[in-house]
Amino acid sequence: MSEMRRDPELMAMEQQMHAKAMAMPAMPAMQGQPMPAQPMGTGNALPAQDNLPILSPRMGMTKERLREAMQTLMRYKNGKNEMDQRLLDNERWWDGRGWITMAESGNPFTAKRPTMWLFNVVMGKHADMLESYPEPAILPREKDDEKTARILSKVVPVVLEENDFYSTYDDQAWEKNKNGTAIYAVPWDADKHNGLGDVKVSQVDPLMIYWEPGIDDIQDSRNVFVLQWEDKDQLKAMYPKLEGETLESGFMQPIYETEDSSGKQRSRYALVIDWYYKTWQGKKKTLHFCKFVGDHVLYATENMGDQGLYDDGEYPFVVDALFPIKGSIAGRGYIDIGKGTQESIDLMDQAMVLNAMAGAVPRYFSPEDSGINEKEFLDFTKPIVHVAGGISDQRIRQIEPTQLNGIHVTMLQNKIEELKQVTGNQDVSTGRAGGVTAASAIAALQDSAGRSSKAGIRGTWAAYAKIVQMVISRMRQFYTVDRTFRIVGDQAAMEYMTIGASQLGPQKIVNPINPGEFMGVRIPEFDVSVHAQKENAYSKMAQNELAFQLLNAGIFNPQLADQSIGVLEMMDFPKREELMQRVAKNGRLVKEMAMWQQMALQLASKYEPETARMMASNITGAPVQGTASPGEAKMPEETQESEVTAKARQRAEESRRPA
Fold first, then answer.
1. Mean of the pLDDT values across residues 216-243?
2. How far apart (Å, rounded) are the C-alpha atoms in residues 25 and 515?
């Protein structure tokens, strides 16, 4: 490895990578200057405005370009208006305030009492995603990278754990099932670890990001804008030159309705915009980044040079769509496909409740001159009701409420079943098995009922694989100094692994015929395989039942290792490969033990016959046929021949002695 570091070309490439890392926004903090907060949460630390270099005539971010960027942002917003309105409506339905949308649409019948069947659907799908939390297995594409792949398979989960990825995954599970679109950000956070920096994985609100309309992949967008509301006083404290400046951009960003009023008080907030855009320099694709507020540049990669933001040239975003929409990177969620049925359920349920109330509280027709003391009549504690004049049925008549037909109740139940069927939220998938008691049978029913959930989870796994690839890309670019990670392995054993540019960076290629000839460099590439295991009670019980069945079938008998491997290869269950490896290992140990016992027996038979007899008896468990005593074992054939030879040699020596 040291020879590779001394190669001039490799040293030049490493120095260039290190220079890029030093040119990132962490530079002001490394020079001892205060590091401001990161309002966008995308890991791009904000440099002080005083440190911005003088713009060159041939490059740099100008106010004219910012105005062009705002025009592009407005065009992107117009193309995303329908989706933004859908997101706002979905949040209303999720909060149980869908009747507001119904009233705004002109529906004269609005149900202000939600039944929350749709909430139950999303909650069940969210639970399915948490049961299938992904884990990466990183595989090398070349044999020389096998060790690095094993290290990455251990290190990447630690990096994600440091980012509290489980909480991010939890939040995005809600977002994906509610609105159909979950967006992850995988930037480099230069402020982590006291300025050393590290990878950051976070979520992006779909309402606050804009891309080019009409595309299916976010990487195909010419520009990507991410917006965030920031306190004006904090911005001016971080950037003194903003004092007295107008921070308004004129951009009307929609906001969610909240239960408190703080969500609508935007007068003291400014809209900070992260602008990502791609350029081409010859045949090389370069990703640039600019952070600005109003017409004031806070940071721009073009002002720092032309190397761009990330070496891979890709936007640091991964989109996970549930039900894809043609011509959009976004998707639809379960609220989108179920809120129409939920609206019908709410209206019928409210009508039935009102009808029941009308039947429970009797009402009456009465003329104005009936002479009935209404106060006494409505007070059920009064035993006597006074009436002026005579009493007759014509003076007051009870209103008979309409009795609902059974078809109305049936129709309500059919709508509820329709919602379950459309969203794939059958009873068995929520834990009700309809009389089935065996754990394996319940697990099989749940597996069949959860096909729609599994389809959505597979899409999340694909997005997770992209996230892991981006994490590796950030590590390759910015781990210019080797990092050490503590890994907790099997049986809680601690292990320390080191990863850095020496493993992930450019690797020297030499001529296999002439090792001294340098042929170029290569970048290690890896494939990501994602797996997960369901962790509900029924699946665990089914696995336990399978384990007992395998035990009773003799799968764990090391004497039957070869047959057991053949059986396991035909089966399919979680951790099958690990079980096959253990069975094969036990079989090899038994064979090796038998071989060593045979060798020890042969040696003992040659030099310690009595010991050999005892060993043979212990191995076989019974005396061997042909022995002189019950505890004596039959000697091996080679040992018998050696004794005959010894006796013949003794006779020959005696015959050569003088008489």
1. 92
2. 41
Report the C-alpha gap between 429 and 449 in whole angstroms: 6
Q: Is pLDDT above 90 for 45?
A: no
281 SS3 class: strand
Mean pLDDT for all residues in the chain: 77
Q: One-letter amino acid identity for 330?
A: A
Give the DSSP letter of residue 226: E
Tokens of 193: 């670890």
DSSP 12-53: HHHHHHHHHHHTSTTHHHHTTPPPPP-TT-SS-PPPPGGGPP
The three-state (H, E, C) secondary structure of 423-486, written as one string: HCCCHHHHCCCCCCCCHHHHHHHHHHHCHHHHHHHHHHHHHHHHHHHHHHHHHHHHCCCCEEEE
123 CB burial (10 A radius; 0-12, 13-18, 19+): middle
Angle, CA 423 vertex, CA 419 and CA 426 arms, to 5°: 80
Tokens of 199: 């990878």
- Answer yes or no: is pLDDT of 347 > 90: no
- Residue 24 neighbours by CB under 8 Å, 6+ apart: 45, 188, 190, 197, 478
CA distance from start to end of the chain: 78
Cβ-proximal residues to 469 (8 Å cutoff; 6+ apart), any chain? 526, 528
Structure tokens given for 633: 């074992």
Number of H helices, E strands in the chain: 20, 20
Q: Is the CA virtual torsion 612, 617, 620, 623 positive or negative?
A: positive
Tokens 């089966």 found at: 571
Please give the average per-residue pLDDT across 584-591, as a whole number: 87
CA distance 170 to 163: 13
The strand pairing partners of 522, in sequence order, are 507
Whole-angstrom distance, CA of residue 295 vs CA of residue 249 = 7
Distance CA 531, CA 402 (A): 58
Beta bridge mates, 137 = 529
- Residues 219-235, mean pLDDT to the nearest whole number: 93
Q: Give the lowest-confidence range in 153-157, 237-241, 494-498, 519-523.
A: 519-523
Q: How many CB atoms lie within 10 A of CB 406?
A: 7
Structure tokens at 70: 């705002």
Of 286, 205, 274, the C-alpha closest to 66 is 274
Q: What is the pLDDT of residue 569?
A: 84
- Residue 601 token pair: 């027996």
Q: Under a CB-based contact definition with an 8 Å cutoff, are residues 483 and 496 in contact?
A: no
* Adjacent-strand bridge partners of 364: 398
Q: How confident is the model at residue 381 (pLDDT cuts 50, 70, 90)?
A: confident
- Cα(377)–Cα(317) distance, integer angstroms: 70
User: Closest by alpha carbon to 521, among 150, 2, 5?
Assistant: 5
C-alpha dist (Å) from residue 213 to 3, 139, 277, 328: 51, 36, 15, 7
Per-residue pLDDT of 616-645, as tens digits, reads: 777 665 554 444 444 444 444 444 445 555
